[in-house]
Design brief:
about 300 residues; mainly alpha; Cyclin A, domain 1
Length: about 300
Amino acid sequence: MEAYPCYEPQGVLGGAQLESKEEDPYYDCCGNPSIIEYRGIYVCQKCATVFGPVIVDSPRRAFTQEEIQKKRIREPVYTNIGPRTVMNVKDDSVKNKVLYYRLAKINKSVSTTFERNLTVAQPKLLRLVSQLGIPPSILNVALGIYKKAVAKHLTTGRSINNLVAASIFIACRKRGLPRTIEEISEVANIPLKVLAKNYRLILRELHLHVKPLKAKYFVERFVTELGLTMDIQKRAQELLVLVEQSAAIIGKDPKGIAAAAIYVAIRDLGRKEHRSQTKISEIAHISEVTLRNRVRNIKCVMAGS
């Protein structure tokens, strides 16, 4: 990455020393670099060279006075919530320090409930997205859905965790990402019924429409998690094309159909890649009875074709 000069005074920026990264060989701007985090970027205190933004997957909330002071300096000026006012006291006089303290207190008091809610919800959203391995594009969609829910006052009397998890699930459905509600419920540590209730609430109140995911989106993921070969995946996709227009599977859970197609593909090819019904049903978050029923449906369609 090309370095650009930063016209900040040398020494301790912002009046607080942050942890240094001079031992990293990437930072070779000068003979003895002293790299710190300052307002969301890495910068050298010795030669004032900027090395790019600080990438933080899940920012932590500040509780102690020391954490609050570090957060004021490290936090970027522009966030997903919007630009914030940075009051950096550089005057040593007691009178001006008291004045800046009063201005900062007034600025904090006039912040809206919308901003305060997002300040709490955004770290939770980023943490769940990081644990689920969801790309940034879907993160932006989930954040937009949650902002609309806050603007509609859906958070009044409800848990932020539940609405954040429901927003992520809706974003996955809208972008066609194969993530099951059981998986999100397990990662977010939320009961499945509670998550489903909040999911339906957001859809109803925000007038959102999501299409059911097709079974083919789950096949590739299940094959990878089961450690199967590409031949099994191709055969399972062929079976799904064969049965997708059949009345026997209309309205059925796509996870069960994908798992059944993989199980039938393994049996048809007769390879040594045997996987038990228990293993497949655990990966697909369905019961063994559901798996056997979907296998029976697929075999009936194959016999009639």
